[in-house]
Amino acid sequence: MPSFTWEDTPDPYDDSSLVNNLSFSPALPATIDNHLFLPSDNYPALQKLTPIYQNKIDLIYIDPPYNTGNTFAYEDSQQHDEWLSFMSRRLKLAQQLLAPTGCIFIAIDQTELYHLKLLCDQIFGEQNFVNDFMWLHGKGKKDTWSRTLQQHTLCYAKDKANLPPFRETQSTTWATKNPDNDPRGNWFSGSISFTEKRSNPSHKNYFSITSPSGKVWTRQWLCTKDQMDELLAQNKIWFGPAPEYDAVPREKIFNDQQKEIIPRNIIDEVESTRHAQAHLDELLEEKNSFDNPKPVSLIAHLIQIACPKKDALIMDFFAGSGTTFEAVCTLNANDNGTRRTILIQKQEPNKNQSRYKTLSDLCWARIQTNSMAYGEPCKLVILK
Ligand SMILES: C[S@@+](CC[C@H](N)C(=O)[O-])C[C@H]1O[C@@H](n2cnc3c(N)ncnc32)[C@H](O)[C@@H]1O
Fold first, then answer.
1. Final residue in a domain of this structure, among 197, 228, 260
2. Residue 171 in this model has a pLDDT that exceeds 80
3. Nearest protein CA to atom 6 of ligand 1, as residue
4. Angle at CA of residue 113, ends 112 and 116, nearest 5°
5. How remote is the CA of residue 345 from the centroid of ligand 1, in Å?
6. pTM score
7. Domain residues for 98?
8. 20, part of any domain
9. How far is the CA of 378 from the centre of ligand 1 (A)?
10. Distance from the CA of 116 to the center of ligand 1, in angstroms?
11. What is the DSSP code (8-state) at residue 384?
12. Per the structure, how many domains does the chain have?
């Protein structure tokens, strides 16, 4: 891998004696049974959290300042080198915190995307890059030459060899045909086998099935023999129209049937930036007190595709308005999960007009509102 260097900007919290003098109040348990909110600079906080939760965090989602040079509620203007120094310190600690099966999602736009990719390749290893999940966030950001429709979310595994496969559950709605007048309604057919040429005869799913007209199909299937027998018994295998029944067998998938698919890296079914802003304004009963909150459904989607554990420990150390907390609450409410979050948000003065003078106050206010709505208590932890 080519080396990637920049001029390092030191951080006061590089001084370990300064960090050693800090402690959490209340002290943090090794096993977390409550959500935690830390109104603190994430660098010292991550340094203190690492010895307690090293290798224990299942998923980290962060949405750091993109370094756009714009005036937002939060500071978003640094030199590239400064930004890389800032991110590198935090990402190295994040890497240590991740569980062996864990992964991190990092939201970013094109201002720092290409630097961030090189930085992450260095910290997490090029081989642990999973994908860039691009979110189509609305009408796009235009300049004289083009309109940029996507924001990026780089995903890295702690160790890709241990990362469970990502899955997305999709509910079919688009079937419009019912070629065999099935009383269960409209369906479409999905592939359920490899071609004979691509089939592996020693694979455990290599077996034969026979169509109603007696045509035998021997190949490698995408299901086991038992699952195939079940599908056949339920009349869910389509062999083509009667009386020939001679088409390559496919699975009948009915409307409203839940289907697991490999997630696409372009996310366009979740809410837009505008929608996320309106939702936050309504929750806080204040207009535009925070800029660029992410939609709850975007973060919930990423957690859902990457982490099947219903008791996952999830961290967001650039919490902003606390969207990650709400996303986890909605997931827990949907599947009776007991996921827990650790959220960190700096006590940064709010540059926008708001009754919340710091962004940590704003985040805490939203957490408390969500906490009450979902019955998910969150503990305030002070680092001093
Ligand atoms: C883009 S916003 C995150 C928005 C968030 N995803 C949401 O949906 O509301 C980035 C946040 O990181 C916070 N931040 C910046 N530097 C930080 C630091 N050193 N420690 C903790 N938070 C920090 C900023 O105050 C800002 O609220």
1. 260
2. no
3. 63
4. 80
5. 6
6. 0.86
7. 35-167+262-383
8. no
9. 19
10. 17
11. -
12. 2
